[in-house]
Structure formats: structure tokens, C-alpha cells
Amino acid sequence: MLEGIVRDSMTKQATKTLRRDGYLIANIYGKGLENVSTAFKKNEFIKFLRTKETIAFDVTVSGTVYKVVVQEYQKCPLTSDLLHVDLMVAQPGVIASYKVPVIGTGTAIGIKNKGLLMTHTKRVPVKCTIENLPENITIDVTDLDTGDNVLIRDLNLPETVKCFLDPRVPVIGIIKAK
Length: 178
Known about the structure:
mainly beta; CATH 2.40.240.10; 2 domains; 4-stranded mixed β-sheet; 3 helices; 13% helix
């Protein structure tokens, strides 16, 4: 489980000091909950996120355990270092917005015909409760040929999961290689 500390001071100088000491600045929030300003060891946070198997994961801040989901993060435009992360508390029974990863399986016919597999939408935004949240959206691409796309309307989502993107948005497809 990932452990963090509560940030006492919100000043610019305190934030710089924490970042210099190897901490990642984070905010934990949720519907009806008070915001918690925290900091995590940056290297531990990145290692933990790379090895997690579920979208929601547990963090501990000053003895309190939160089940959270990464909502947004900010990177430095020059160095691509992680600067800040927003963590939303996944509350049971509360409908919230989540971003579900897309995974393509199989070898497409279009790849054999000198095409390239393009994932246009790496994460599909959905609204549902945490209990109904799928871990990923798996798309079988074996029947796709050059120029074919899988659109949002072609996805088989459970009835309790609503996607609020335009149904004509492509998720994954095969483009012609030049």
C-alpha cells in the first residue's frame, strides 16, 4: 500500500522544498469529503502505479486509508517530470467519471496488408459507480483491415456504464502505411 504525508503548508516555498526532497504533490478529494493535501515519495508512487492491476487502489495518509483513482496529473513541459496528481476517492454507490484503458487483442488482417494499428483513444471516459467499473475495454482487432475503425458506438459496455463521448469517435483502427 502506498503511504503519503499530509502537507501542512500550502505556500510556494513549502511545495518547492517537498519537490526538492523527492516528493510528489497530490490532492485527494471526493463528493462530500474534505480535500486532503498530501505528498508521496515520487519514485515509490511511480513504481506503484506501474505495477497496480486495478484502476482503483488504496493509499494511506496519516493513518486513514482511501480507495482512490487517478483523475488527472501534471507534468513539467521541459523535463516530463511528474509534478502534481489529483486523486479522487472512489466512493461506493456514487456515480463518477472514470477513464478506462483500451486494450487491442489479436493480429489484424490490415497489419499483414502493410497497415499500422492506431489506438486513437487510449482511455475512454465513462460514468458509473466503482462497483460497475470495468478494469479495461478489450477490443478484438483480428477482423480489421486497412481503413477500418472501431468506434465508440461499437463498444460493448454494460448497461450500468455510460460513455459520454460522441458515438462517431474512433477508438482503434488500421491506417495505411506510406
